[in-house]
Amino acid sequence: MASVIPRKEEKLLDVKIGELPSWILTQDFTPNGIAGAFQRGYYQYYNKYVSVKKGSFTGLSTVLAAYMLFNYCCSYKEFEHEWPRKYH
Amino acid sequence: MNENLFTPFTIPMMLGIPITTLIIMFPTMLFPTPNQLINNRMITIQQWLTKLTSKQLMNTHNPKGQTWSLMFISLFLFITFTNLLGMLPHSFTPTAQLSMNLGMAIPLWAGTVVMGFRNKTKISLAHLLPLGTPTFLIPMLVMIETISLFIQPLALAVRLTANITAGHLLLHLIGSATLALVNISLFTALITFTILTLLTILEFAVALIQAYVFTLLVSLYLQDNT
């Protein structure tokens, strides 16, 4: 099914999985484009969860949890042999 | 066990590329710019805290020294939040690397010293000799004071590095000791766990205090030389 709005302006979370390859091809991969994508993503999250009238700690703690998960993934190799096991 | 102790302090890599710069820039994402008179709760809290710390830090300086307030506040906020983010499990603390702390300490200290020598040459040179020393001690004392002047940036950097690194190491060691003791003797493991809790509280305090001490000392060096 083709979507109604032009492909380039659709947000990533609204793209259907079948249309993902064509969405990726319409995206701008120059450094300016990537910086713009990060800026848009930051402000999308910020305006939805942080800069609301009764923002709570959840907006910040989700970011910290995602940061922790990212660091876990990056350093997985270093502690995968430290899991509690009978024989190391 | 020997190699695992220091792996949290290695440069974080993602697909073979060091991502240290990204991690250093991460705390800036937590400080959005205020763009209205009355902002959302997060920005309001940050503004209140910033005003509180800037008044506390800068009220002892003369107007010339207060031109450094932006520098000091950014330094303080950067060190505080980098240390606090390093308390999260598995995260990398940039301020535990001596290279980075030397990069912060040497330019700041050199800035204050050069400013003092340029604007008040006689008084800066006079600082090298305490008041009321006997005449025959003067040459030795000038040498000692010069050495203590040049040690200041080293001390600033090493103090921050050593405190953060030692704290993290202690937490790792006592944490793994607790895990190892659980199968051997539960009571000892509980005692070790209490020690771990207390240490964690201490580490949070140290993260804040170290930032304060760093900034305070640089501001003291500035006061001497303004």
Automatic annotation (TrEMBL), chain A:
Q: Any idea which GO molecular function terms this record carries?
A: proton-transporting ATP synthase activity, rotational mechanism
Cellular component (GO) terms are: mitochondrial inner membrane; proton-transporting ATP synthase complex
Query: Sorted alphabetically, which Pfam families does this protein's record hold?
Result: WRW
Q: Which InterPro entries match?
A: F1F0-ATPsyn_F_prd
Q: Where in the cell is it found?
A: Mitochondrion inner membrane
State the annotated membrane topology for this chain: Single-pass membrane protein
Q: Is the keyword Transmembrane in the record?
A: yes
Primary localization class, coarse: mitochondrion
The Gene Ontology biological process terms listed for this entry are:
proton motive force-driven mitochondrial ATP synthesis
Alphabetically ordered keywords of this record: Acetylation, ATP synthesis, CF(0), Hydrogen ion transport, Ion transport, Membrane, Mitochondrion, Mitochondrion inner membrane, Phosphoprotein, Transmembrane, Transmembrane helix, Transport
Name the PANTHER family on file: ATP SYNTHASE F CHAIN, MITOCHONDRIAL-RELATED, ATP SYNTHASE SUBUNIT F, MITOCHONDRIAL
The record's comment on protein family reads: Belongs to the ATPase F chain family.
Please give the subunit comment from the record: Component of the ATP synthase complex composed at least of ATP5F1A/subunit alpha, ATP5F1B/subunit beta, ATP5MC1/subunit c (homooctomer), MT-ATP6/subunit a, MT-ATP8/subunit 8, ATP5ME/subunit e, ATP5MF/subunit f, ATP5MG/subunit g, ATP5MK/subunit k, ATP5MJ/subunit j, ATP5F1C/subunit gamma, ATP5F1D/subunit delta, ATP5F1E/subunit epsilon, ATP5PF/subunit F6, ATP5PB/subunit b, ATP5PD/subunit d, ATP5PO/subunit OSCP.
Function, as annotated, reads:
Subunit f, of the mitochondrial membrane ATP synthase complex (F(1)F(0) ATP synthase or Complex V) that produces ATP from ADP in the presence of a proton gradient across the membrane which is generated by electron transport complexes of the respiratory chain. ATP synthase complex consist of a soluble F(1) head domain - the catalytic core - and a membrane F(1) domain - the membrane proton channel. These two domains are linked by a central stalk rotating inside the F(1) region and a stationary peripheral stalk.
Q: What is the protein's given name?
A: ATP synthase F(0) complex subunit f, mitochondrial
TrEMBL record, chain B:
GO CC term (a single one): mitochondrial inner membrane
UniProt GO MF annotations? proton-transporting ATP synthase activity, rotational mechanism
> Any transmembrane segments, and where?
12-31, 67-86, 98-117, 137-158, 170-195, 201-222
List the catalysed reactions: H(+)(in) = H(+)(out)
Q: Which domain of life is it from?
A: Eukaryota
Cite the entry's keywords alphabetically: ATP synthesis, CF(0), Hydrogen ion transport, Ion transport, Membrane, Mitochondrion, Mitochondrion inner membrane, Transmembrane, Transmembrane helix, Transport
Compartmental location: Mitochondrion inner membrane
Topological category with respect to the lipid bilayer: Multi-pass membrane protein
Name the Pfam families on file: ATP-synt_A
Please name the Gene3D superfamilies in this protein's record. ATP synthase, F0 complex, subunit A
Where it mainly occurs, coarsely classed, is: mitochondrion
Q: Does the keyword Membrane apply?
A: yes
Record InterPro entries: ATP_synth_F0_asu, ATP_synth_F0_asu_AS, ATP_synth_F0_asu_bact/mt, F0_ATP_A_sf
- Which family is annotated? Belongs to the ATPase A chain family.
Q: How does it assemble?
A: Component of the ATP synthase complex composed at least of ATP5F1A/subunit alpha, ATP5F1B/subunit beta, ATP5MC1/subunit c (homooctomer), MT-ATP6/subunit a, MT-ATP8/subunit 8, ATP5ME/subunit e, ATP5MF/subunit f, ATP5MG/subunit g, ATP5MK/subunit k, ATP5MJ/subunit j, ATP5F1C/subunit gamma, ATP5F1D/subunit delta, ATP5F1E/subunit epsilon, ATP5PF/subunit F6, ATP5PB/subunit b, ATP5PD/subunit d, ATP5PO/subunit OSCP.
The name on file for this protein is: ATP synthase subunit a
Please name the source species.
Monodon monoceros
List the lineage, top down.
Eukaryota, Metazoa, Chordata, Craniata, Vertebrata
